[in-house]
């Protein structure tokens, strides 16, 4: 028995730890490449470097995941713990610790139901804060003279707005360019709304009668 075992072992190539880890890395990354993974975000933490580390889990497994700072603005949504998502990215391995992880390039909510549930949750929260109270609403002018638009200067959405207004009811349009996705979007949009509100009614750039805050469906 000893001789048979020795002979069989002698037929196996000898690998260093680095060689084995490298072979596993090539096999895994070649076999999978880019993937779409469905799971719940957990253990998420964003560091001062701007990189975000997290895990995606389901009932039977968990995989580590990373969002590099340069990809954060292009994700499609803001990641949060407890949210089920579909993550698109690349599988990579870390031979020094024999680990593998998903480098996330895009995030989408997992199904229309999940997105609708989040919208309803937000609607209820805003209702509780009184933001939909009738007393807070302002009457729209029947015939606005000037239309202010808060949106990205690029993309189809601003062109659609201009084309539709020109075709149906030509009016002066003033665009306040902002980012409509990413970390800076909320602050820029809020600043634009305040900026429009601070304009004089009769000036070189007059205050609009109505505002359109728009984001393209593909953003």
């Amino acid at each position: 028995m000893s001789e048979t075992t020795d002979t069989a072992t002698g037929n196996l190539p000898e690998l260093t730890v680095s060689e084995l880890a490298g072979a596993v890395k090539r096999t895994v990354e070649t076999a999978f490449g880019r993937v779409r993974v469905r799971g719940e975000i957990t253990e998420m933490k964003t560091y001062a470097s701007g990189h975000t580390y997290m895990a995606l889990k389901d009932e039977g497994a968990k995989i580590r995941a990373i969002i590099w700072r340069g990809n954060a603005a292009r994700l499609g949504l803001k990641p949060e713990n407890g949210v089920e998502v579909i993550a698109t990215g690349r599988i990579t391995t870390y031979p020094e610790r024999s680990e593998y992880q998903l480098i996330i390039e895009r995030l989408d909510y997992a199904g229309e139901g999940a997105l609708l549930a989040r919208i309803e949750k937000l609607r209820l929260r805003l209702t509780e804060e009184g933001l939909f109270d009738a007393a807070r609403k302002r009457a729209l002018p029947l015939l606005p003279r000037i239309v202010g638009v808060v949106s990205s200067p690029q993309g189809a959405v601003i062109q659609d707005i201009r084309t539709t207004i020109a075709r149906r009811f030509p009016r002066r349009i003033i665009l306040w360019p902002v980012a409509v996705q990413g970390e800076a979007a909320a602050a820029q949009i809020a600043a634009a709304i305040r900026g429009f509100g601070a304009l004089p009614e009769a000036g070189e750039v007059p205050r609009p009668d109505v505002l359109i805050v728009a984001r393209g469906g593909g953003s």
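The longest strand covers residues 34-46. The chain is about 30% helix and 30% strand.
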